[in-house]
Amino acid sequence: MKNTEQTLLALLVGAAAGVVAGLLLAPDSGEKTRQKLADNADVIKKDLESSWETNSKKIREYTDEALSEIEKYGKMLSDAVRTEAPKK
C-alpha cells in the first residue's frame, strides 16, 4: 500500500507542477493566470481530499481486518496452550 500512496502523491505533484508551469508560460494576462491557478488549486485540493478519504477508509478496513486476525490467532494460541498444558 505504501507504493500506491507514493505513486498517487507523485502523480498529483507532477500534475500540479505541470499545470503551474503551463499557466505561467501561457500568454494570458496576470489576472487570468491567477484565476486559472486558483481554479486549478481548488481542483487539486478536492482531489487530495477525496484521496485522503478513500485511503483513510482503506487503512481503517485493513486495521480492522488485522485486529480480527490477531484476535483469532490469539484465541487459537490460548486454546492450544490450555489443551497442551501439563495437568497437575
Q: Outline of this structure?
A:
This protein has 88 residues and is an all-alpha fold.
Structural class: mainly alpha
Binned, the helix content reads over 70%
- Total individual domains: 1
Mean pLDDT: 83
> What is the straight-line distance between the termini?
49 Å
Shape: rod-shaped
Spans where pLDDT lies below 50 across 5 or more residues: none
How many beta-strand segments? 0
Largest β-sheet summary: none
What integer value in Å does the Rg equal? 25 Å
| Helix count, DSSP H or I runs of 4 or more residues | 2
Proportion of residues in extended strands:
under 5%
Order of helices and strands: HH
Describe this structure in words.
The chain is mainly α and 88 residues long. The protein has helices spanning 2-25, 30-84. It has one domain (2-84). Helix 1 packs antiparallel against helix 2 (30-84). The longest helix has 55 residues, at 30-84. The chain starts with a helix and ends with a helix.
Relevant terms:
88 residues, mainly alpha, 2 helices
What is this structure's SSE topology?
Blueprint: H1 2-25, H2 30-84
Helix pairs in contact: 1-2
